[in-house]
Specification:
By secondary structure, this protein is of the alpha/beta class. It is 38% helix and 18% strand. The strands form two sheets. Strands 8-7-6-9-10-11-12 form a seven-stranded parallel beta sheet, sandwiched between helices. A five-stranded antiparallel beta sheet has the order 1-2-3-4-5, with helices on one face. The longest helix is centred in the middle third of the chain and has 22 residues, at 206-227. The structure holds nicotinamide-adenine-dinucleotide. Nicotinamide-adenine-dinucleotide binds next to helix 4.
Length: 351
């Protein structure tokens, strides 16, 4: 079994022994690199190919943390890394013991592939027991989204191009018929025509501006409008923003203007829908190498800067964004609304 396959070795480039603070162990399985970090105060992390998969923070000491993480790694390898499907990236998060979102049902819009922030959110909501409906933008995207939807056991998988009249309404109608309610919506889409996105704000055309605002901001307002009648017992609406809404970030250009409008819309929607128990948040992740991000010139420089400047000295992953978003959908967060929550390793607090 997995425990026999995985041979853990200490990473020689890090100090080991009693005095060392964090110890690192590595193992390889085929092309995959697994890494365990353990600290003397009982914290441990498991990373697979650089992506954090699990952590413990309540072990007695380093030894116990290592044992706990190793067990998780063995289980993970047995259940996730032996099928070819998982090689393609549809790796689910380990199912959490406490299904904090059990019984909740939500719509996730914006999965393009296994790098999408929306996919990180979908995995996290699912791991916490929620049911999710997902959409794909067109037939080309369908073949990437369908295997992911299967991994999520999504009962509703529908096309949704927000530019196609009636498609958004059709998704909410189906949800109304099938579920009769909705507990959360994750709006994780944005678009700007290349000339608008890559030009100066001062030069933007009326059409470029309108398209950017329409897809990236208005559609969230419309989804809130369509979700409201289905959230009779309250709910949570999320959209994805970025720091370029607050500060001038090189190459973010007109999208910064759209994200500022989006964050403002979040506050107005939160105020209007709050009395019905509907909460509204913008999530503001640090830079992530997704397809949408590939439209931003010099994106690698943005990643390097984020890593160097963020207090956490680390880039965020889609899983980091997913679990933080899922937390805000839990009843424990019922008095938090209208926020722009930064998931950026603290980048935004540093000058
Ligand atoms: N990647 C980052 O660094 C980063 C950082 C902060 C915020 N965001 C935001 O996160 C959100 C998700 O982007 P991502 O980075 O996961 O990239 P992504 O390319 O994986 O997702 C963008 C999604 O938008 C969808 N979309 C575009 N036009 C659409 C339309 N007309 N109808 C329906 N869907 C449409 C795409 O199909 C895709 O699924 C965006 O709002 C983006 O601005 C991204």
């Amino acid at each position: 079994m997995a425990s026999k396959i995985l041979e853990w070795k200490t990473d020689d480039s890090l100090a080991v022994g009693k005095g060392a603070t964090v110890q690192q162990f590595v193992a390889t399985l085929g092309d995959d690199q697994l890494q365990i970090d353990v600290a003397p105060w009982g914290e441990g992390h498991l990373k697979i190919n650089g992506r954090e998969i699990a952590h413990v923070d309540d072990a007695k000491d380093r030894r116990q943390a290592f044992r706990a993480i190793k067990q998780i790694a063995d289980r993970y390898v047995e259940t996730h890394m032996t099928t070819s499907e998982n090689k393609k990236g549809s790796v689910m998060l380990p199912v959490a013991k406490a299904k904090l979102l059990e019984g909740k049902k939500g719509l996730i819009v914006g999965i393009a592939n296994e790098n999408s922030i929306a996919w990180g959110c979908a995995k996290a909501f699912r791991a916490l027991g929620a049911e999710v409906a997902v959409t794909y933008v067109n037939d080309k995207a369908k073949k990437y989204v369908e295997p992911l939807a299967r991994a999520l056991e999504a009962p509703i998988v529908m096309p949704l191009d927000v530019n196609k009249p009636g498609q958004m309404e059709a998704v909410f109608e189906r949800i109304s018929k099938e579920w009769g309610k909705l507990d959360f919506v994750v709006h994780s889409i944005a678009f700007s025509p290349k000339e608008a996105l890559q030009g100066r704000v001062v030069d933007v055309s009326r059409e470029g501006f309108a398209t950017t605002m329409d897809v990236s901001c208005w559609t969230f307002i419309r989804m809130a409008h369509l979700a409201e009648p289905l959230m009779r017992k309250g709910g949570t609406l999320f959209t994805m923003s970025y720091y370029g809404s607050q500060m001038v970030v090189k190459n973010y250009n007109i999208m910064g203007v759209a994200k500022a409008a989006l964050e403002c819309a979040v506050r107005y929607l939160a105020a209007e829908l709050g009395p019905k128990g509907i909460r509204v948040h913008a999530i503001s992740p640090g830079p992530l190498a997704t397809r949408a991000a590939s439209g931003i010139p010099e994106f690698d420089a943005l990643l390097d800067k984020a890593k160097a400047k963020a207090p956490a000295r680390s880039l965020v992953s889609i899983d980091d964004v997913g679990v933080a978003t899922a937390f805000l959908a839990h009843d424990a967060a019922r008095l938090i609304t209208g926020e722009t929550l930064y998931i950026d390793g603290g980048y935004h607090i540093i000058d």
